[in-house]
Amino acid sequence: MSGQGAQDAKFFQRGKIQEFRAELQAAETKDKKFTKRKTVLKKIVANITMGNDMSPLFNDVIQCLSIPSLEIKKMVYLFLVCYGRSKSDQIRLVMPSFLQDCEDRNPLIRALAIRTMSYIPAPIVVEELEDPLRHALKDRDPYVRKTAAICVAKLYNADPRKCERNGFVELLRDLLLDTNATVVANAVAALTEIGDRQDGVIFKLNLTVANKLLAALGESSEWGQIYILDSLLRYVPEKHEDAELMAERVIIQLQHANSAVVLTTIKVLLYLMNYMENRRLMDYICKKMGPPLVTLLSSGPEVQYVALRNILLIIQRRPQVLKNDVKVFFCKYNDPIYVKLAKLEIMYRLAREENAREVLAELQEYASEVDVDFVRKAVRSIGRLAIKVQPAADDCIKALLDLIETKVTYVVQEAVIVIKDVFRRYPGRYEGIIPTLCANLDALDEPESKAAMVWIVGQFADRIENADELMDDLTYTFLEEPTEVQFALLSAAVKTFIYKSQSETIKALVHKVLKWATEEVDNPDLRDRGFMYWRLLALSPAAASEIVLAEKPAITTDADRMDRGALDQLLLHTGTLGSIYHKNPETFIRGATGKALTDSPALNPLSRQVLVPVARTHLLPPTTIRVPGPVDPRVANPPSPVLPPRQNGASLPTAVAPSASQDSTAASPVTQDLLGGEEDGDGEGDTEDHEHEDLARAQAVAPASDPYAALDSAFGGHLAGEPRPQHNGDANDDLLF
Amino acid sequence: MASLIAILDLKGKPLIQRSYRDDVPSSYIERFLPIVLELEEDGAQVTPCFTREGVNYLHIRHSNLYLLALSKRNSNAAEIILFLHRLVSVLIEYFKELEEESIRDNFVIIYELLDEMMDFGYPQTTESKILQEYITQESYKLEVQVRPPIAVTNAVSWRSEGIRYRKNEVFLDVIESVNLLVNSTGNVVRSEILGAIKMKCYLSGMPELRLGLNDKVMFETTGRTARGKAIEMEDVKFHQCVRLSRFENDRTISFIPPDGEFELMSYRLSTPVKPLVWVEAAVEHHKGSRVEYMVKVKAQFKRRSTANNVEIYVPVPDDADTPKFRASTGAVQYAPDKSAFVWKIKQLGGGREFLMRAHFGLPSVRGEHDSMDKRAPITVKFEIPYFTVSGIQVRYLKIVEKSGYQALPWVRYITQNGDDYSLRTALEKGSAPIVPM
């Protein structure tokens, strides 16, 4: 019972194999309560824990299996899990004992036996496991059945085709209708695992089965609820009402204390909303999602972090969620830095005219904190706020100038960087502050800020009286500067020259810089640009002026909103690692299958239009799969559990796979079919004002066929549809053993 | 799901580990800390989850330990991180403390627990009360066998049958924690009340409980009128024993409780809260050689209540020295490790107001970094018994068991500071509106 601690730390001493062997043998005599052997086994397990190889003791340890003590049995089983695989010959000796345990009167022992066996992927064990597992799946005790369900997933992992041939997938599927909710949940987990494999049987749910699972939801343990909720994404609503009814049933889980249950519920709701029409219900769901998300921020920092990264995605897709809650994302002084940075990003997203003043006041507080990284991001956010919310721009600029006053170098540098963008966003409004910036030239020692300042000097050389002198100073160290600064200096020198062509200083300067760039610098890009400017100036100064001083496109904040199709796809991974990294799993996990919304008559038109197909890995033709092992002609053809590798349309025969018709569109590429249909989607969940904008954006984006264009490197630099290089070499590994 | 769970010491050495899948070799455990150190060195943030060479590392910290999960899949991060937290609480319930020593002392049973709590990387049973029924340190022979408690797979997975008490009692603690942030102008920027109802249940059999609160939404849905104040909870979270569908239908909180101590529910209100304990400070720097503080505390709640164990943390520069204090009540201490001084007041009566003064010397030569004042807020700790700031009340707790026993419910209320009760009201003298008494 609780509190009564053992004192086994003494066993953590490196021991010799020979000694342990001798001790085990010696312990056989006069060991009435098996305490001696228990002690030796503890020493052995302690050595395993320390990382010492105890496998030579295999034969000695398995002798202990005959001892009628559960504690000893568990230690021997642990030993077997560690070394069983490498001793594929000797493991044979343990089989009788395993099989005996599989028939024990005690369900705990029966479950322990199949669980342990299934952890040992030696062929002989897998072979011997089949019969007892088949029985265990129908055991009268739910504890054994729930354990057996997971065992099937392990078996499938070891040998998928064999597992299918022996009908285990069907047995597992039958467990979906088990009377015990825990068994159902584990069966769902196992089927999900199998369905997630590239070569696995497709796991889809029809309405009947989905409803049965929902019924089990209330009786499941908290973890079981997660598996069941997760599986609901495998159900594709055919009618709006189906999606709406299901959402109404699921929504109560938002009140669960387990934050993973809450996040998974949100994932299901977000998914179902894609298939809904009832705008009022969708608004209601969005309203209901807010408070639980806020409550997650009262959990430990790790859970907060997971929540924050997900919130960042959710509010981009469903802007009305948390729209009025920017304050809850204000940083606490003692938040870990990763939490603060994640909050900062959300504060920026939620900032609008109504709350800009409060947000700015907070950002100003942060700008005087200790953590340099955080301070920098805070300063940068002030600038971004100015760019995003026009009415707040004046206050933001004032705040930035105050920060420059502090003369703290990294603050000044960040301020200069963002002010450059502010100048571009609001031409003609804030150039009056340039002298203040120029006064802080000396503080700039980082490439980015220096380049920004140089850009400002060049761009506004006509308004800076001593621009030529400043440039002269700045170019003094031209040859030692990083490339980024050299580029900026080159362009700025040319601009200044065009503005002030009569200045002798600048004439000499531009000549000097061009000469350096073309003769002394090793970087070919810089050299090319030098030549370009040189010729331009030489051939036609008028043309040069027109080109170099051409009007710049205005900066907007549109680019940092993630693309709708990409968001839809990422939100299918809510709560998972992908939603934290903001990457689709196939981009950071080898062999992972992507997810995409499945088309159905109920899918709202806009979602369909921006649908990003799953990046399919190049699969081998089905025949290749049956190469290993003897091919049983009976099972080579459907209907059988042996299915061709996951292709659109293939599906599990009975209850699990209702209609194949809907599958075929799963991977349909981005089509422009709907571009003509202007009738805007009232089945769409965004706020009205975003709707048209979204539609317009979508139409603009769809034909470009690169929906990720706006996602800076989030997708590992690969286009969604491209075959990814990592798969070229080893597709075999994934398909076969 | 996780491929491997390990507990590491601060040097990154695994103390105990359990592998659930072969896809991540255990050698990756030892790569964890070097990656963390490398990230720190690069000035990058160490987040609870990161990916390296196709392996995902998820971790939490508990005192001097890392709990680490490795995965090669797009696992449910929320689930795994929560599981690690549960593992911590189960091990603490088993061994009182979770530290290097208790892990070594109990490694055999920890292996058993790891085998039972997670299968193939999927969390299974994490209820420590139930686990303790069949995973114990008592040696037993196979003849007197432990069996898996029905609760493991039952719909009621948190309570076993056959519990007996001589005296049937229930204790309810309603605890409200106030988080708030006051800015330098004295306005409340953000405030929230985090409430929790904690129970200690000593009840026989399988009792059915029903809890009635002065919940505004409940009154509205049932059409009843509230006597006195009703409160509007913005979000409510329930222990898994509470029937969520009944709550959704008619706001009834009905449940079969676990045995012993547990948190029945938590709730959150974001109604504006007046700072119950108000603190402000006037700071006066004297030419960089010394600094003076005048601090005022005011109890802004009814006279009949009292705040106990009030602790006021006022930040001071890191290099402040030779502290001198004078307080009209309580005691003051310098806490250089927190870069603050602490004013402790055992009992602060409602409506009362006190002043204190502090004086510190400062080194005459100051580093460049001090030019920018890092402005940590003033933070306050306190407890106000017999009082809830939200006004929540337990109207009734009905207990029905088929044997028909009578059970007594006991209710306590307390309001305290949350983990973030801060006031940015330490201001340079002149800008501070403090009027000495």
Molecular structure report:
The complex is a heterodimer of chains A (737) and B (437). Chain A is mostly helical and 737 residues long. The longest helix of chain A has 18 residues. Chain B folds into two domains: 149 residues, Beta-Lactamase, CATH 3.30.450; 271 residues, Mu homology domain, subdomain B (Immunoglobulin-like, Sandwich). In chain B, the strands form five sheets. Chain B has a nine-stranded mixed β-sheet with strand order 11-13-9-8-23-21-16-19-18, with no helix packed on it. A five-stranded antiparallel β-sheet of chain B has the order 2-1-5-4-3. Chains A and B meet through helix 2, helix 4, helix 6, helix 8 and helix 11 of A and strand 2, strand 4, helix 2, helix 3 and helix 4 of B.
The coarse silhouette of chain B is globular
Uncertain spans of chain A: 618-737
User: What is the CATH superfamily of the largest domain in chain B?
Assistant: Mu homology domain, subdomain B
Largest interface: chains, residues each: A-B, 116 and 110 residues
Range of helix content of chain B: 10-25%
Radius of gyration of chain A: 33 Å
Task: Furnish the topology, listing elements before pairings.
The complex is a heterodimer of chains A (737) and B (437).
Chain A: H1 17-26, H2 35-49, H3 58-63, H4 70-83, H5 95-102, H6 107-119, H7 123-136, H8 142-158, H9 160-165, H10 168-175, H11 181-196, H12 207-217, H13 222-231, H14 240-250, H15 259-273, H16 279-296, H17 301-317, H18 337-350, H19 356-366, H20 372-388, H21 393-405, H22 409-425, H23 434-438, H24 447-459, H25 467-474, H26 483-499, H27 504-520, H28 524-539, H29 541-548, H30 564-571, H31 577-581, H32 585-588, H33 605-609, H34 622-625, H35 633-636, H36 688-701, H37 731-735
Helix pairs in contact in A: 2-4, 4-6, 5-6, 6-7, 6-8, 7-8, 8-11, 10-11, 11-13, 12-13, 13-15, 14-15, 15-16, 17-18, 17-30, 18-20, 19-20, 20-21, 20-22, 21-22, 22-24, 24-26, 25-26, 26-27, 26-28, 26-29, 27-28, 28-29
Chain B: E1 4-9, E2 14-19, H1 32-41, E3 49-52, E4 55-62, E5 65-71, H2 77-95, H3 100-105, H4 107-117, E6 118-119, E7 122-123, H5 128-134, E8 169-182, E9 188-202, E10 208-213, H6 216-222, E11 235-238, H7 244-250, E12 253-255, E13 260-269, E14 277-286, E15 290-299, E16 306-315, E17 321-327, E18 331-335, E19 340-349, E20 353-361, E21 378-385, E22 394-400, E23 408-423, E24 426-428
Parallel strand pairs in B: 8-23, 14-24
Antiparallel strand pairs in B: 1-2, 1-5, 3-4, 4-5, 6-7, 8-9, 9-13, 10-12, 10-22, 11-13, 14-15, 15-20, 16-19, 16-21, 17-20, 18-19, 21-23
